[in-house]
Predict the structure.
Amino acid sequence: MQDGSRISIDPQTNKASRSAQGESQPLWDGVHQLDNGAVIIVRDGVVVMDAELLESHERQQREMEQVACMQLVRKVCGIHNECQKHPACDPARQLLSLEKEELRNRGLNPIWQGVELDSRRLCLDALNNENYFQVCTKRRSTNRKSPCQALQKQVCGSRGQCARTQACDAARQLLGMEREELVQVPSGLTQSGAECREAMEEGRFFKPCE
């Protein structure tokens, strides 16, 4: 949105929430225009979808399904296989192999056309299973820190001496968001990373630890 906050819609319940500065709360009832020009109507906290919005939502769901298995492997095994020894990495790769096999069968047999792939459904379920399919937090050894890593060090202190401050807690939340987004955006150009860079430049809330 124009104020920098984010709107997310739960695909199961259609409940809308607004996230800003690491906090999330239900979106108030009314008409809301998003940055992409789309308009949503919220009643009793639930998005009332028109045909255009429903089509867009379904398209997003299809796009999520198409990349779910690759996203799962990147999430669990690491972008550069940093966590390949994690117990969940091999099952994630097996699901990716299953997807490739199902796609190959779809190409050979017309009866598969339009059929939902079991592998993609399983990958979507696995992405939501944070207990077993955990995010790989290892990164290639490099002297260059990500924007949110740099922000956390600046705000929390190199030895964690300011770890109990609100700013440090917010910086840690941004770092967690950045790690999640890096699973989907291997280039490193994430929305949370941009927010961390802006926070370091602005500096009013995220003051350096002294």
Summary: The chain is about 45% helix and 10% strand. The longest strand covers residues 16-20. The chain has three domains: 6-48, 64-127, 147-202.
